[in-house]
Amino acid sequence: MTQPLTTRPTVAGISVFPFRLPPPLCAFLFVIVLLVATFYTLHHPEATTSLFSRNPHNVLRLRRLFISSASNATISSYLRALTRRPHLAGTKPSLDTLNYVLNHFQSLGLETHVAEYEALLSYPAHISVTARFSNMTTVEFDLNEPVVYDVPEDDSSSSSPVVRPYHAYSPSGSAQGNVVFVNHGEERDYRALESIGVSVRNCVVLARKGDSLGRGAIVKIAETKGALGVLIYAENDGGGFGGIERGTVMRGIGDPVSPGWPGVVGGEKLRLEDDRVTRRFPKIPSLPLSLHNAEIILASLVGAKAPVEWRNSGRVGPGRTVINMTYQGEMKMKKIHNVMATIRGSEEPDRYVILGNHRDAWTYGAVDPNSGTSALLDISRRFSLLLKSGWRPRRTILLCSWDAEEFGMVGSTEWVEENVVNLGASAVAYLNVDCAVQGSGFFAGATPQLDGLLVDALKLIQDPDAAGLTVEETFKSQNNIIQRLSRVDSDFSGFLHHAGIPSIDMYYGADYPVYHTAFDSYDWMIRNADPLFHRHVAMAGIWGLLGIFLADEPLIPFDYTSYAAQLQAHRDALSKLLQGKVSVNPLSMAIQEFSLVAKEASDEAKKLKKQAYRQNDVAAASKRRELNDRMILAERGFLDSEGIKGKEWFKHLVYGPAAEPESKLGFFPGIADAISMNSSEGMIEHEVWRVARAVQRASKALRGGFT
After folding, report:
1. Is domain 560-703 given the CATH code 1.20.930.40 in the classification?
2. Contact call for residues 542 and 475 (beta carbons, < 8 A)
3. Rounded distance, CA 82 to CA 85, Å?
4. Which residues does residue 115 pair with via DSSP β-bridges, in sequence order?
5. Which residue numbers delimit the Peptidase M28 domain (predicted)?
6. How confident is the model at residue 16 (pLDDT cuts 50, 70, 90)?
7. All CATH 1.20.930.40 domain ranges in the chain, comma separated
8. Which of 85, 398, 529, 561 is the 20 to 30 A CA-CA neighbour of 637?
9. CATH, domain 79-109+344-552, list 3.40.630.10, 2.40.100.10, 3.40.50.1370, 3.30.70.330
10. Helical (H) or strand (E) element with 210
11. By 3-state DSSP, what share of the chain in percent is helix, strand and coil, each rounded to 5?
12. What is the CATH number of domain 122-146+161-330?
């Protein structure tokens, strides 16, 4: 646990906070251990591996060394450097963060390289929104954000402008029409409007962003209803500062002109008019709006009263309020850069544990994503200290800094597409952290075989907000649960939904008010989300320990009995929803078989674990390797080569994006889509069979051998 420091740093002359660092005695002892280890290694190179030889005592020693080397002051310095300027992907300032991360990895002596791609990115050239009210007055809304940044006066590097609020990949054009408020813009909201006789055809719709639909889905549904344009506002309003939430409205993820294959430099690129490209973009323009401007429009509306469940006592329109909105954008081919650091495994270098975070930001990115970047840099620093002490992981660890995530997970998706075969053969797991710290409280999503491992890591890290308690204890006391990863909102998507790699996504804080606004700055972080950087330290500790567990344990710590239990719970929820109209027996039988195979694998692992640290036991090592391979491949069984209907790039039939949140299923996306689209019973039954076959494939992979 970190301890207080007596000095108090300042930012722009303002006293900020006391950092907590390891006490002097602990720091001194840690340095002595490193010096002794380094001296011994230099004079006895043949004995390097014995410093961290594979035995339970050294496993505990390794974990203690990793945890004790935490430094919140160091993480703070990383975040300060990364957020000095806005660094939108494809712009010149983004190269500064690229070089910062690259130089950091190289300075630690890590094997480092850059994977470069070309991608079509979208930028604003001109935006405007004007309203004409019933009294014939006209207002042209200010679409800029007020500047309240706390930046040192001598910091000339902070002069780069913040990109104006816009929706990336919105089509250029103008829309003029009466306004209709559509709540969150979901299908059920339009049904509610229809029930009171309100149509949005040839109107401009105003939507408030909710938790269920992303921007692209809001615009897509409005387009199908005949709307001419869309304005979207967020109720958090940048914490009362007048912030405006940027974002993308592209459908799907990855580079739109190289769909399904990597956008390597000099590779095939589709033309903009190609149907495979145009289908990714909306047909009507959209823009983000501040809460203040949205409230002016809402107050002017007449017509039918908003439904009670909308939490809006006003009117929905249409009335005599007319909106004229214009967006002119530019589509540009840009080079993007993923930075990769590799720590080679000593015994299984062909098996990979991958830790990833994206680096690009809409503005300054202190929360999204550079709180995660700072944690990743600190993990690399701590790993380098362990390497100097003689440690070498059993399996290879990759530390990945992705580019262009904000445009639709572009950097990570292109890398997954380029390496999908090797990932399928050798990737153990992908550990993602996007926004490491948004506020208080630990949250996580994972594929079920990783649940127990995540809990084990939480038990070793002291809670940053509750003295004397571990993160696991507070997580449990708050009745939090590990979520499932069907959402498509960060870089784990390509790994799990396309390549079938077991994945975890973690963050501190359920939400934060400056999301994608110009106020997501270092100053906001130290004043609001994590003044002492204790939560950053906790996240780096959890993330790094998970990497060590997966890279070092002789038997990969997967628990497929947890997966079997989760599948059974999913099956029960589906059966309840279908109410006997469609049989789920094929799925029930497949899950029953999977449960038996998972129990067999668990029993086998328990037996082999007793021999895990036995030296020179070739037979036991061979059996461990064979079981590990089966556990790695089991997740791939849930993939289907045809993918999800209408979203074929997404291959995972248990976890993936469903078209409509009203399905009430956060799993089995193909079945969920068939239900929400009122498909025939035969079509729903076909989707049930597809999932059943996927579960059977996973069972066969986990059991091994052939029929």
Report:
1. yes
2. no
3. 8
4. 338
5. 338-523
6. very low
7. 560-703
8. 398
9. 3.40.630.10
10. none
11. 45, 20, 40
12. 3.50.30.30
Active-site annotation holds for 295:
no
Classify residue 289 as exposed, middle or buried by CB count within 10 Å of its CB (0-12, 13-18, 19+).
buried
Domain limits, CATH 3.50.30.30, in the chain:
122-146+161-330
- The pLDDT of residue 323 is above 60: yes
Question: How far, in Å, CA of 395 to CA of 384, rounded?
Answer: 16
Output the pLDDT for position 615: 72
Task: Please give the backbone phi and psi of residue 536, each rounded to the nearest 5 degrees, phi first.
Answer: -60, -45
Q: How far apart are CA 81 and CA 165, in angstroms?
A: 24
| CATH 3.40.630.10 domain range(s) in the chain | 79-109+344-552
What mean pLDDT is reported for the chain? Answer: 90
pLDDT at 389 over 60: yes
**372: CB partners within 8 A, 6+ apart:** 357, 358, 433, 434, 435, 436, 539
- List helix spans (H) across 108-141: none
pLDDT (average), residues 466-476: 96
How confident is the model over 421-437, as a mean pLDDT?
A: 98
Distance CA 527, CA 522 (A): 9
Distance CA 532, CA 1 (A): 13
Q: Would the pLDDT of 19 be above 60? A: no
Q: 3-state class of 576 per DSSP?
A: helix
* Cα–Cα dist 505/482, whole Å: 10
In whole angstroms, give the CA distance from residue 147 to residue 170. 26
pLDDT (tens digit, 9 = 90+) per residue, 525-538?
Answer: 999 999 999 999 99
Residue in 296, 301, 311 with CA at minimum distance from that of residue 180:
301
Residue 478 buriedness (CB in 10 A; 0-12 / 13-18 / 19+): exposed
Residues, the chain: 707
| Catalytic residue (one of 118, 186, 348, 405) | 405
Task: Give the tokens for residue 398.
Answer: 């990759």
Give the per-residue pLDDT at 639: 98
Q: Which single residue is written with the structure tokens 């001109």? A: 126
CA separation for the pair 273, 104 (Å, rounded): 41
Using CA of residue 565, residue 567, residue 570, residue 575, what is the dihedral sign? negative
Quote the CA–CA distance of 265 and 592 in Å, as a whole number: 47
What is the Cα–Cα distance from 680 to 337, expressed in whole angstroms? 46
In this structure, are residues 402 and 357 in contact, taking their beta carbons and an 8 Å threshold? yes
Q: One-letter amino acid identity for 587?
A: L
